[in-house]
Amino acid sequence: MSIPTTVDTGLHGATRIASAEERATVQAVFERHGMPLPRGSVAVVFAYPGHGVGERYRRLSGCTSQMLLLSNASAGLSRLGIDVAAASTEAAEKHAHLGELGRIIARFTEDDAAAVPHTDLDEGRFLLRWTMVLGGPRDGLLVTDIGDSVAHTRAVIDLLTTDRLREWAAAAGADPDSVSAGVTDAYANGADSRGIVAFDAGTPLVAKVGPRGVIDAETAFVSEVNALLADRGAAPLFPLLHGVHREGEQATSLMERVEPLTLDNVVFGDPAKFVLAEDALPALEPHLRLLGDLYTATMRQQRPSVADHLLRERFRAVREHEGFVSAFLAFFPSWEPAAVLGADVILPTGARLPGYTELTHWLDGVAASLLPGSGCLVHGDVHLKNMLRRADGSPVFVGPRTVWDGREGPDIGFGDPSYDFATLLHSALPMSGLLQAIADGTSEALLPELPAAADGVLDLSGLTTPFTVDETLKRLEDRLVAGLGPEDEPSVLRARLYIGAANALACRLKYERALGTPRAWLAVYAYVLWYLDRARTQLR
Known about the structure:
Elements: E1 14-17, H1 20-32, E2 43-47, H2 53-56, H3 63-79, E3 83-88, E4 105-107, H4 110-113, E5 118-121, E6 124-127, E7 130-134, E8 141-144, H5 149-171, E9 185-187, E10 195-200, E11 204-211, H6 212-231, E12 241-247, E13 250-256, H7 280-298, H8 307-320, H9 322-331, H10 337-342, E14 344-346, E15 352-353, H11 356-370, E16 376-377, E17 387-389, E18 395-397, E19 414-415, H12 417-440, E20 457-459, H13 471-482, H14 490-506, H15 512-515, H16 518-539
Parallel strand pairs: 2-3, 3-4, 14-20
Antiparallel strand pairs: 1-8, 2-7, 5-6, 7-8, 9-10, 10-11, 11-13, 12-13, 14-15, 16-19, 17-18
Helix pairs in contact: 3-5, 8-11, 8-14, 11-16, 12-13, 12-14, 12-16, 13-14, 14-16
């Protein structure tokens, strides 16, 4: 797209194409700061003189109001797969008040600033206010001589949003001119997505942005599963795929929009989401039958290559993962990980369970006898937030997982259906409730008082969440075991189900930001042990 020089395009400034030197300088500064701008996808850099400079030089004023607006708006652009960054000559302590936004501000030296729009004043060299777009249909756009910094920032955000939705509409096979509004809704991200938003392009669409490898694998799997079920006269498991937009190392899948109400907002009888409603199983049944169609259509007598990883190896991998190590250090800086993992745990029921070290060591001894002899195509991440309904009430799933922890086997998407059901079980108790507490900011109430450091025992008896199986949860567990077929003994199937639930919970211990507080971390940890102990009880 050709941008005439020095012509105002409604961006409250003059526009031109950045020179090769200007672009190279910006890329080099951000690389030097350890936050390289992406190649191939869209990034926008907002440059500003510095906080407080405008008090001395009026023509450079407006930094604080511009950056505060950007702080609020950057998350919206990020959801669209657009990287947002800022540039200034000021020292980091000058923008410490900006919080998270401060992490994406690169400092230009006076030599750096000489290669881009700047001004030399008595007290030094400052960047002028300018904005540069890299990648996408506006690649190289440089806006200078900016007057109203707030109006300019809003205009850039609107322009890039419109561009992005038009590109997505074209990738979905729709007329870009049919995009009638901006983003109409935004949804919570999964582990492998950067943003999930809804928009209208003549038909309601949902765009999911993520790493290109993940999106390509997911969309290939979605297309394969839906086509396979269609050939058998069954309903599609996933929303219909309209297209994929690829750029650099990032991609976006464009899907049919379904009703946004996830089943974690349907099947619970309490607002805290720890107790299933009496009619939970009937509400889940259409989804379970649809999964059964997939399993029946793709079952074969072959052990999934991922089976041992999910039954045993992943527990060790989690403990050694850098995310687990950093989360533990952040939440419990004075505790020793080995002491906590090796300590017995006391639950609110009074039960005393062996710690993570002992129970995972037990798994090493029994996992071989639990490995399934057959497998099928599976969803891979059947928790309640991935279960929705279409407008006609029919079941639909989103967010499949075909690769676990980067382990790409020869049979991607082929797995053990008991792990699908295990992720549903862990969502029924406790994960939906824990996520609700985290979202509500009430996770402190999960454990009113933190326990003392572990000294052979970690006392978690103060947890306020349930560690018992009521009749409704029991009926769900019985239905899940029955849905796994007669191939193995019920005790083996049930043990696999509980180990899988523990596995799904254990991987959550790597995510400091998602859990947010040490109390939420300890609650997840307690349930890992609870499910492992239940599996051990089944096999005694």
